[in-house]
Amino acid sequence: MRMQNLRAIRSTGREFPGLAMAGAVLLAFACNVDAGEDTGVALDYSAYARMLSSFVDENGLVDYAGLASNRTDLDTFVHLLARLDPPATARWSQAQQMAMWINAYNALTLKAVVDHYPVESIKDIGSVFKSVWDKLTFDVMGRKVTLSHIEHEILRKQFSDPRIHLAINCASVGCPPLAREPFRADALDEQFAKQAEQFLSDPAKFRIRRSANTVHLSPIFKWFGMDFVPAYGSRKVRPGIGARENAALNYTADHVSTDDRAYLETGRFKVKYLDYDWGLNTQ
Asked: Is 192 contained in some domain?
């Protein structure tokens, strides 16, 4: 649909240059709106996209100092989340809803850090009695939600897609990288794959020690490995490997080099989990 619009704009430009320029502006705006298919009111990601491109680098690290001093775009998007109309969003496609909730989680996590900046870890924002994920509440669609509620009750329970674990970012070094663009309904598969490939290319998150017959996985797969079992658990079953690890290995094999994939598919090894770095994912 966007390509058809672009061709129409180019064609119009040959006869009406001014109209073509206006159309190009509208198309650029459309690329920052996730409208889904016949889904009613769209969500404008323009401010969020601008903030990500300005304050997140290619490694997914955040310039929190810069964001704290120039947070207009972040606050604009957070305000849009609060004003979303539940009946309208209920008509969105599942992919559009999932993209919105991933973006909401990531944006609200940034807000949590910026509201309390400077901190050395997002865990510093919590208390003895409640973690940051349960302590802070945010307005989304006119109701109060916590980060824990978004992750566990909405993203995990309602959508049951384990790939979200490589898309949501908890503002920590051990997390998957923060994407530099909003997640969108029409690009989720490609964006999920990109996230996985970038995450698994980091030896602090995944590595193979062939000399020790050991595969090291991120503890994310320890905490949420069972979420991968329905989609990835049965493709290959490795003797002596637990169900969650087996599913995680099948998922991982899809996003690593050819040599590493061959080893994961045919090698005999044990699985160990790496340490998780809760330090702030700051530039």
From this structure: no
Number of domains forming the structure of the chain: 3
**CA 159 – CA 205 distance, rounded (Å):** 25
Q: Do 281 and 122 contact (CB within 8 A), yes or no?
A: no
Q: Radius of gyration over alpha carbons of the chain, in Å?
A: 21
User: Are residues 137 and 122 part of one domain?
Assistant: yes
Q: Are 273 and 219 in contact (CB under 8 A)?
A: yes
Q: Are residues 86 and 102 in the same domain?
A: yes
pLDDT at 124 over 50: yes
Task: Check whether residue 42 and residue 172 sit in a common domain.
Answer: yes
In contact, 100 and 44? CB cutoff 8 Å: no
pLDDT in tens, 195-228: 999 999 999 999 999 999 999 999 999 999 999 9
Residue 32: pLDDT band with limits 50, 70, 90? low
Domain that residue 219 falls in: 206-273
Model confidence, pTM: 0.87
